[in-house]
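Extended Data, panel c. Modelled sequence:
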Amino acid sequence: MIDLDYLNYLEGFLTENRKESFLRVLKNRTKHFTVAVEDVFQMHNASAVMRSCEVFGVQELHVIEERFGKQIDKEIAMGAQKWVDISAYDSAANCLDTLKNRGYQIIATTPHANDCLLEDFDISKPSALFFGTEREGLSDEIIKKADGFLKIPMVGFTESLNISVSAAIVIQNLTNRLRNSDANWQLTEEEILEKRLDWAKKSIKDIKRIEERYYNEF
């Protein structure tokens, strides 16, 4: 449970505009859809997917680092994770198991002919959207364990898109449809309080001193 007195204390150091911005953004945040990227070596692509999650209201991003180690962590840590929750995994199996145990269906994005088209995708079920690199796509392990497959309709000669472009198109389409649906897609009250506290702490420069003062006073 969130300590509301502590939250109110920290928010006292924020401007009214900042607090209103938090509430406005959190009204449009969702965990109904979550995004996972597998072995994205190009750092700017991982960062671009993360920004798409943030812009279109997806609260969580999962990064599988099976081949490229902790290098992605350093690049992602350049600021945008301030607003998006990022989880890193050393194997696809760990990521798949975690998301399945949380009740997500695993949706692999691929350009295969028999995949579900983006506009036909059923948005009612909580889904983890997996993206692979343009050159290699998703691993066989993820493809085999996927509950469904999704593709972006394309009418040109090119058969694939850069991962950052694909993710942006898919996330924008699905989250826009989700917000206009009757699905229970918003964060819970407890989740909103958790993010208010997290974002308040990340917005206060001398947070350690402020926390010490609070616990000494109260």
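Strands lie at 33-38, 60-64, 85-89, 105-109, 116-117, 127-131, 148-151. This feature is highlighted in the accompanying rendering.
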